[in-house]
Design a protein that fits this description.
Aminopeptidase, Alpha-Beta Plaits, 2 domains, 4-stranded antiparallel β-sheet, 9 helices
Length: 374
């Protein structure tokens, strides 16, 4: 099976999250890998939703390289697609479909590169593939998997196959997602003095969140942390004083951000009337530009050190945040064939040549890194 055929097969599974339905695609990939000598586990995220962990060539002396991806995709959106999003149409040098860039193309390339890397010999170290359910709504799946899996093992390095157009990124910001709740007392809107308006409290806190200062030095790769209020709701009808309101806060952190201190400081600034619930707490990803793994990936991707635009970081969150922490800070690079600007878009596509080249890139990384660490 070539990478285009496998990508088309993966695109035929509807894994829009919610609800995800990753069981079918996980079982298909698991059977394919098992047929090629991988030890496969399919841990459950929830009913009808499976993760996949597949390993081959592991050694008691040398940790494996980990290749990471996710099965789920985002909804199709309100705009009409010009092609069937689950058919995997190939035209104009592109493969089209929901997940082609984010990130079933990358998953397909990782699968084939891993299989091919064992064709001639099996040097120490080996490969571990970790493909998750439930990534798209805050990397929930990888957090659950790493908390519940019997043994995540060790790792020497991690590659996350999110869309980067085959240009390696050595870091991305972390995330703190918060739900903020205010409470009040209901009353008829014609007598607002008899009530306590929760929306007014939320509005005051939203403005305080807008003006929140991190007092953090600039990260040389990731810049400064950011904060955004993305959603708010409150009240039941037009003629009542609302007794409940809530809003969300999205903080994107850097390696200079202390998450615990930031949450406490923000809570103090918003005041006791606003209760904060932590929804997501994920660290940034950072790998040294001079790390041997970074240098190897640059070489394989044909990027000279000092090239304009490098070192490169990303604005979005990945499962690498959890994996780098679980595996003790090992070098973690985000590298995938998909087009970053096509993620979550109508008529999503991935360039065929990027997809085909990514198989070579992943295979060379696996083989050369195993030789390097052994």
């Amino acid at each position: 099976m070539d990478v285009l055929s496998l990508t088309r097969k993966l695109l035929s599974f509807n894994n829009i999250n919610p609800p995800g339905n990753e069981e079918g695609i996980a079982m298909y990939v698991g059977e394919l890998l098992a047929e090629n000598g991988f030890n496969v586990r399919l841990p459950e995220f929830e009913k009808g939703r499976l993760h996949l962990i597949a390993e081959k060539g592991l050694s008691t002396h040398t940790p494996p390289i980990v290749l990471s991806g996710h099965f789920d995709t985002v909804p199709l959106g309100n705009s009409k697609w010009s092609i069937d999003p689950f058919e995997g149409v190939i035209s104009d040098g592109k493969i089209w479909g929901r997940g082609s860039s984010d990130m079933k193309g990358g998953v397909a390339a990782m699968i084939l590169a891993s299989i091919e890397s064992f064709k001639d010999k099996s040097p120490g170290g080996g490969v571990r593939l970790i493909f998750t359910a439930a990534e798209e709504l805050g990397c929930i799946g990888i957090q659950q998997l790493m908390k519940t899996v019997d043994n995540p093992g060790k790792a020497s390095a991690v590659i996350v196959g999110e869309p980067t157009a085959n240009l390696p990124a050595i870091g991305h910001k972390g995330a703190i997602y918060l739900n903020a709740v205010t409470s009040g007392k209901t009353a008829h809107s014609s007598m607002p003095h008899l009530g306590d308006n929760a929306i007014y409290k939320a509005a005051a806190s939203i403005l305080k969140a807008r003006d929140f200062e991190f007092e953090t030095e600039e990260d040389p790769l990731l810049g400064y942390p950011t904060i955004n209020v993305g959603k708010m709701s409150g009240g039941l009808n037009i003629n009542s004083v609302p007794d409940h309101a809530e809003f969300t806060i999205d903080i994107r952190s850097t390696s200079k951000t202390n998450h615990g201190n930031t949450i406490k400081k923000l809570g103090d600034q918003l005041g006791v009337e606003t209760k904060l619930e932590v929804l997501v707490d994920m660290n940034p990803v950072f790998t040294n530009n001079d790390d041997p793994f970074t240098e190897l990936v640059y070489e394989i991707c044909r990027i000279k050190k000092g090239t304009e635009g490098f070192p490169k970081s990303l604005p979005y969150l990945t499962d690498g945040s959890v994996l780098q922490r679980v595996y003790g800070g090992v070098p973690t690079i985000i590298l995938g064939p998909g087009q970053p600007e096509m993620a979550h878009k109508t008529d999503e596509f991935c360039y065929v040549n990027k997809l085909e080249d990514s198989v070579r890139i992943y295979k060379e990384i696996i083989l050369k890194w195993r030789s390097y660490i052994c």
